[in-house]
Give the backbone structure.
Amino acid sequence: MSRPIQIYTLTDGTEWTARQILMRLRSRWKQKEIAIHLVRGRLLKHRCPDKIFAKPSLTKPRTKLTITEKDIDREMMKLALRNI
């Protein structure tokens, strides 16, 4: 048996489901990578339509740590000292 669909009432009086808001955000901002957890998080925090339908901010991707020549030399020295 499936869960009942939860309907959220916003401050302007309109009633929405999380899936409807997701489809509206995807069509409005032309971003297909918007996920349902973003919508549910917004609905838990706010009921204001301006905040719920605001443009999603993209987070910065994690960057790899750069390895310098000094780090490589240190690792090689540790390896050499372990094998003596």
